Amino acid sequence: MLEELVGESTSVNLNGKVVELPVVTGSEGEKGLDVSQLRKESGYITLDPAYGNTGACESSICFIDGEKGILRYWGIPIEQLAEKSSFIETTYLLLYGKLPSQQELTQLSQRISKNLTIPDLVKKLYSNFSDETHPMALLSAVVSALSGYDKKQSSLEQSEVDIDETSIRLIGQFPAIAAAIYRKKIGKEFIEPDPKATYTENLVRMMFGETDLEKQITPEAIEALDMLLILHADHEQNCSTSAVQLVGSSRTNLYASIAAGIAALWGPWHGGANQDVMVMLQKIKDSGGDVQKYVEIAKDKNSKVRLSGFGHRVYKTFDPRAKVIKSVCDKVLEKMGVNNPLLEIAKELEQTALQDEYFIQRKLYPNVDFYSGIIYKAIGIPTDMFTVMFAMGRLPGWIAHWKEMLTSKPSRIGRPRQIYVGPTKTDYTPVDQRS
Ligand code: SDX
User: Fold this and answer.
1) Yes or no: domain 70-270+384-406 corresponds to CATH 1.10.580.10
2) pLDDT beyond 50 at 79
3) Which among 175, 260, 269, 399 is least surrounded, fewest beta carbons within 10 Å?
4) Ligand 1 center from residue 311 Cα (angstroms)
């Protein structure tokens, strides 16, 4: 039974034993009960499947207010970063906790430009995967394999400088890793990066160079891609960032931790949704464009179908990122002279769902994945590469939280408890005595 909130702590009476629970208040007024001593003092643990009510840590990197649709990186609103910043500048912000001076930004760009390519042996790795392998499987495998080029296999052996070096190297290599996946898909050779090009220009160049698509990539498309990377760069304790932190807490290396994050992001309920949205919109189009029919299917629990790109654990109103992406969709498509009927279907689907009691009652709104695929597709990125783009954007956020976990006090291995509900003590019976 919870007694009165007394000052900055409360107490809970468990079978006559009163346990003090300190109240933790965040800089935006969020309140939490610190239960870190609960088991030691009472033998009780808390139970919260899928961690909907559980804070894993205190963090300064990203703030989300799900009721108000607020998202900030180190206090800076995502709308301002999307409009005014660049992905590399936002990367600096996430990694070092402040916007860079011009000199710091130039230095970071130069450090990244020195790390744009991947070892020849890693390039050979791609040819050993079947053409059916999903790009996210290849991405996770290649990132993990890059640990073989870092002498220190555990973060315990690495100094802060080592970790910073490894972080910048991986961020620099990511466009080449992603582009090489695409080049393998289309059966073309790897294109070496151009150190004079910007990060996003290089990505586009290494993917589409020497193909017909290269001509259609306009400066607006590159700007839109850079904005998408900013919008995907961080999102506090989401599934994949939590995976990166949990795996990293065992003191394995950054590559292994990021490979785990990539694997988690792949899932259709997480970053894989951006690919599923396009599949869903195409399915609606191919079956005659009956949006209402699809919404009904998504409401039917037995269908096991969900409206991809809709709903969120934290946002109970519009995902601010979805608002930004939707607002630039029309402009990017018009500038690129691309007409994608799926955009109109997406808008109709959104309107239909937002007026439907099922979605209203559950506060299900479009999330970051609902419109992003429209822009990726307009640029020429194939659907199964969408989540690779999400991972590229999220990389600095994953690294920032991985570093924050390692330097937090105390920084222990992540190891949740459980409530056991299986059979009580049962003796072994020889096989000839079993029924
Ligand atoms: C991302 O966490 C992050 O920050 C993630 C992310 C990031 O930047 O890292 O924002 C990126 O992953 C965005 C989400 C992308 N995923 C999708 O678009 C997949 C579709 N959405 C859902 O599967 C779902 O909404 C989740 C996974 C996103 C959130 O799931 P929750 O919070 O666990 O909600 P839930 O499964 O408990 O659903 C609550 C109710 C259920 O119905 P009831 O049991 O109450 O009757 O809402 C229903 C669900 O069936 N529901 C949906 C739905 N999403 C939830 N019904 C139909 N379509 C949907 N999309």
Assistant:
1) yes
2) yes
3) 269
4) 4
